[in-house]
Class I SAM-dependent methyltransferase (Uabimicrobium amorphum), 263 residues
Amino acid sequence: MGRLHLFEFNDQDWLPQSMRITLMELLIGTYSLLKIFQPVFPKVHQFIEETNTQRLQLLCAGGGGPVIDFASYLEQKTSNKIQITLSDKFPNIERYKKLQREGNVSIDYNNTSVDVFDLPKEMEGTRVVINAVHHFKPPQVEKILHDAVTDNANIVFMEPVQRTPRCFVNILFALPIFLYLGIFGIRPFRLRRFFWTVLFPVVTIITVFDGLISTLRAYKPKEWQHMAEKIDPQQHYHWQIGIASTPLTKVTYLMGTPKTPKS
């Protein structure tokens, strides 16, 4: 089945902020509960070691996603100190400050808008996009890759959804259960969250709906491979593209690094 770039609520500017924040909290709670990104962390860690990365630029960071789990894993495994910088076109400063306080690792953030299609020239470090690539159409993904190649920068994608019947069915039937399990593990308690997920569970329904659409929007490894070949015809980059998996979760990944590092 071909990729379908259909409507998602979370993409809409008109979605009320209280609902958007609750949706973000549900996703982060589920990430943590299921350790969804755990299969790909060893591969990214190896990439970081091989490229001698000292700073990660977490683009399109939203509410931070699995950054605490990711940063904690790197803290345990990496000999060098890694600095993680969060940025987004619509930065969630309150959330970033909370992550900075709670994290046992080096996390900072940009407090101004950062557009992934127009990155500041002074931005240094490996560019990382987690669970956001499926929000972009193919020409936009190609631009993100092309800009990285033009700037001779490392680039990493991590996507926890796949365009498969199994993933679609898992989200349809299993995600609602894990969402509710995750809700009651989120601290501190918020009346807003209880209202939108239990009393009037609109956000729970929206989260499952967006998850189903995300599977239809997801890119297959061969599609990323085709994009990489298109924007890097001279093969100046070394690309690693595939799916990391455990019995419970799968993560599609792309990692690109210049064959001739920036001097």
In short: The CA atoms of residues 49 and 78 lie 7 Å apart. The chain has one domain: 9-258. The radius of gyration is 18 Å. The beta strands are 55-59, 83-86, 106-109, 126-130, 155-159, 237-245, 250-258.
